[in-house]
Design goal:
By secondary structure, this protein is of the alpha+beta class. The chain contains twelve helices and twelve strands. A hairpin with a 4-residue loop joins β6 and β7.
């Protein structure tokens, strides 16, 4: 008996590392001091030595049950983008610049080519957010996961000067809410999606005129990464007063997280186009509107608040970064929370 006969192939692990190296290398930043394969990743502090009060911000998350879709479609090159997005968007929401990322893949059996494909998506997400992929772990766990399944999670660290942390404390009556378009469902609410639609190849490969693509293609579309758009706003000289990453819990849970006591957000539902995938989910699942807004991003992956005088500059900065902005409402004095009208 040996480790391989017990279900863990060490040689496959070595091959996975070799195959993923080219993807990881594309994410490198000058501050990275170690090579892939070491026991830890080292990152120089030189990037933020000139800040008055450099403050580290971190984020950790996974892809959730969206992975079930990747298994069924045998498509593994985009879920890594989702994993990175869920972490770095949270960091950017606080005003931080993502610095580096680490991934964790747990699988029933290490298929090196599949692992390298997953990591290629992680690397793509890191490139989109200018974060370095400085390490990670692939754990082969036979008997714990089925051979053809895996889990994927990650951890990111960023930095912000303390004076530039986005807290929401300066919000005031009549500040304007601007939303940035999502790419679709992103990485939340898939447990409900999997109850609404039959998760089989025939259903996922069905083309829908309303979507302009198959159901599977619409659902697996990777999460938008908003790091560059938020950086573009800052570079335009605009102070973002508050920012919310619309993830699990939708509007009703996430928007209040950016508000101080005594401030209420008012969002106009008809101020932007809702992607058709949400209409399809609602109609097929007979899901009430409030539950949709309490579960999904409904077409807005990030919502931020700025002074009315900064609206035009903010809109232009977002467009310059390649994202689509909408003026979606305002904040006003009142009980902390959100009103959809």
């Amino acid at each position: 008996m040996d480790y391989k006969n017990a279900g863990v192939d060490i040689e496959a692990g070595y091959k996975s590392v070799e195959l993923m190296k080219k993807h990881v290398q594309e994410t490198m930043r000058p501050e990275v001091l170690t090579n892939l394969g070491g026991f830890s990743g080292a990152f120089s502090m030189s990037r933020f030595k000139d800040m008055e009060k450099p403050t580290l911000v971190s984020g950790t998350d996974g892809v959730g049950t969206k992975l079930k879709l990747a298994f069924l479609m045998d498509k593994h090159d985009t879920v890594g983008i989702d994993c990175v997005a869920m972490c770095v968007n949270d960091i950017a929401c606080a005003g931080g610049e993502p610095l580096f990322f680490l991934d964790y893949i747990a699988c029933g059996k290490n298929f090196p080519e599949k692992i390298a494909t997953i990591v290629s998506g992680v690397a793509e997400g890191c490139k989109q957010s200018s974060a370095a992929l400085i390490g990670g772990e692939t754990a082969e766990m036979p008997g714990f996961y089925p051979e053809d399944e895996y889990d994927l999670a990650g951890f990111a660290v960023g930095v912000v000067d303390e004076k530039n942390i986005i807290t929401g404390k300066s919000l005031k009556d009549k500040d304007v809410l601007i939303g940035m378009a999502s790419s679709g469902v992103h990485s939340n609410g898939f447990s409900l999606v999997r109850k609404v639609f039959r998760m089989d190849k025939e259903t996922l490969n069905t083309y829908h005129d309303s979507l302009g693509k198959t159901l599977g293609e619409a659902l697996i579309e990777p999460t938008k990464i908003y790091v560059k758009a938020l950086r573009s706003i800052k570079d335009a000289g605009v102070t973002i007063k508050a920012c919310s990453h619309i993830t699990g819990g939708g509007f009703y849970e996430n928007i209040p997280r950016m508000l101080p006591d005594g401030i209420r957000a008012v969002v106009e539902k008809d101020s932007y186009p809702i992607p058709p995938i949400f209409g399809l989910i609602a109609s097929e699942g007979k899901i009430e509107e409030q539950m949709m807004y309490n579960t999904y991003n409904m077409g807005l992956g990030m919502i931020l608040a700025v002074d009315p005088a900064d609206v035009d500059k903010t809109m232009e900065a977002i467009k310059a970064a390649g994202e689509t902005p909408y003026i979606v409402g305002h904040v006003e004095n009142g009980e902390k929370g959100v009103t959809l009208c």
